[in-house]
Write a structure and sequence with these properties.
Elements: H1 10-22, H2 28-38, E1 41-43, E2 65-68, H3 71-79, E3 84-85, H4 107-117, H5 123-126, H6 130-145, E4 150-152, H7 153-169, H8 178-191, H9 197-227, H10 235-241, E5 243-244, E6 247-248, H11 251-265, H12 267-282, H13 286-292, H14 296-307, E7 314-318, E8 322-324, E9 327-329, E10 334-337, H15 339-342, H16 377-394, E11 399-400, E12 421-423
Parallel strand pairs: 2-10
Antiparallel strand pairs: 1-2, 3-7, 4-12, 5-6, 7-10, 8-9, 11-12
The structure holds protoporphyrin IX containing FE (HEM).
Protein name: Cytochrome P450
GO molecular function: heme binding; iron ion binding; monooxygenase activity; oxidoreductase activity, acting on paired donors, with incorporation or reduction of molecular oxygen
InterPro entries: Cyt_P450, Cyt_P450_B, Cyt_P450_CS, Cyt_P450_sf
Length: about 425
């Protein structure tokens, strides 16, 4: 792997992406709270004040733009893929992926491709991976940390999703060090969506190298696996055999879809892991409760998804004229759905600003909603619950390191903590 981008170090690539998606210092929760009280709809590009890209890429700012803040409105948009479409993403973020980018598909095409892919990610399939995931997390990571009595858990969090996905995808396990290269490439792709003109050319060049590097690496695996008879219960094996209404996936589609999974499945899970652990360690009394009753980990993850969603907004384009709160939104407009606001809408959630794992179950939008809802959410939850369980089992008297700053969840587009310093006995 002599390719220039091979030099890209994982931690450096991650912090470059964090810088890009962190945006201005504005407190996005507070800005949204004020906006909800002024008006449920904002006429204009609400996101621009945060200095982060949307997945419209260079199309951002080229169409009339509106933002929505209330739970019911965000749900109405995300659930209706016919009126609110995603095709524009193909020219924005999707331009880096050339190939099967399900996120940017609409209508029947999306429905068919999603039906092909979904079985590989449903709980019945995913839960079979649990023993393998538990073993990797415990033996390769947590047990090895034990003698140190302290760690920045984000170092583990950064490697966790890619190491797990690497195994589940069906890559040969003879060279596990490759997964770091894959992860760095995946991050360079996400980082390609740069909006700072001074950094844009270099970011795109790196993204281009990463797209090619990943394609070649995955093509080796996919072509070989097809030649060997497309066996196996892993993601690549399942995709090679997938069939729906007579449609199957060719090698190029399997390669490009698998490639798109690495960015989708990587740092999102890292961020959620960091937020779950931070809220677990900073909410009074919660650690003891969860330690004693591990079934609460599901509630912990669901409430974290509501309270601090990793992705703060989703953009759609209107396929016809629509109206919200007396404002007519013309066909061909961008609608910015402020997930972070809807998840704390006082009309939808009692004490919305309180982190409360005991609240009544209700959908929130941290994994999206409707036809594009995250296909990998069960994988992400499985990884995080396996990691939390391992940490609680193996690190005695775990607590935040009192000599270090308390981690703060921040970021205008992608939220998370940058460090998670902990100690144990
Ligand atoms: C905590 C971790 C994750 C978060 C917060 C997250 C978040 C999201 C969100 C918000 C969407 C909806 C996008 C939209 O409506 O435009 C989405 C879609 C998607 N996610 Fe995730 N995701 C996570 C983990 C994963 C994992 C582990 C995988 C793969 C195994 C994955 C694969 C996908 C794919 C393929 C889509 C597109 C689905 C479609 O367009 O039909 N994600 N994700």
């Amino acid at each position: 792997m002599s390719n220039e981008s091979a030099a890209l170090d994982l931690a450096t690539a991650y912090s470059a992406v964090s810088d890009l998606y962190r945006g201005t210092e504005l407190d996005i929760h507070e800005v949204c709270r004020q906006q909800r009280h002024i008006s449920p709809i904002y006429e204009g590009d609400f996101i621009t004040q945060f200095g982060v890209p949307t997945n419209a890429g260079t199309k951002q700012g080229t169409k009339p733009t509106y933002a929505l803040f209330k739970y019911q409105d965000v749900m109405a948009v995300l659930r209706d893929g016919a009126t609110y479409t995603s095709g524009f993403i193909a020219e924005g973020l999707g331009a880096f992926f050339d190939g099967l980018i399900i996120l940017a598909m609409d209508g029947d095409e999306h429905r068919k491709v999603r039906a092909l892919l979904q079985p590989a990610f449903m709980p019945e399939t995913v839960n079979k991976w649990r023993p393998q995931i538990d073993q990797v997390i415990r033996e390769e990571y947590i047990q090895k940390m034990l003698p140190d009595k302290k760690a920045d858990l984000m170092k583990f969090g950064l490697e966790l999703p890619i190491r797990v996905m690497y195994a589940l995808m069906g890559f040969p396990s003879d060279d596990p060090s490759k997964y770091k290269q894959y992860a760095a490439w995946a991050l360079a792709i996400v980082g390609g969506n740069q909006i700072d003109p001074a950094k844009m050319d270099e970011a795109r060049r790196q993204a281009g190298l990463a797209v090619k590097g990943l394609y070649d690496a995955l093509a080796d695996v996919v072509v070989k696996r097809r030649a060997e008879g497309s066996q196996g219960d892993d993601v690549v094996g399942r995709l090679l055999r997938a069939e729906y209404e007579g449609r199957t996936l060719d090698d190029h589609e399997v390669i490009t879809f698998t490639r798109s999974l690495l960015p989708a499945a990587g740092e999102t899970t890292t961020r959620m892991f960091g937020s779950v652990m931070t809220l677990l360690l900073t909410t009074p009394g919660l650690l003891e409760r969860v330690k004693a009753d591990r079934t609460l980990i599901n509630k912990l993850m669901d409430e974290t998804t509501r309270f601090e969603p990793v992705a703060t907004f989703k953009v759609r384009e209107t396929a016809k004229e629509v109206e919200f709160h007396g404002v007519k939104i013309p066909k061909g407009s961008f609608v910015q759905c402020m997930v972070i606001s809807a998840n704390r809408d006082e009309d939808a959630f009692e004490n919305a600003d309180k982190f409360d794992i005991d609240r009544k179950t209700k959908p929130s939008f941290g994994f999206g909603f409707g036809p594009h809802m995250c296909i990998g959410q069960f994988v992400a939850k499985l990884e995080i619950s396996s990691a939390v369980n391992a940490i609680l089992d193996l690190l005695p008297n775990l607590r935040l390191d009192p000599t270090q700053p308390v981690p703060v969840i921040s970021g205008a587009q992608l939220r998370g903590v940058s460090k998670l310093p902990v100690i144990w006995d």
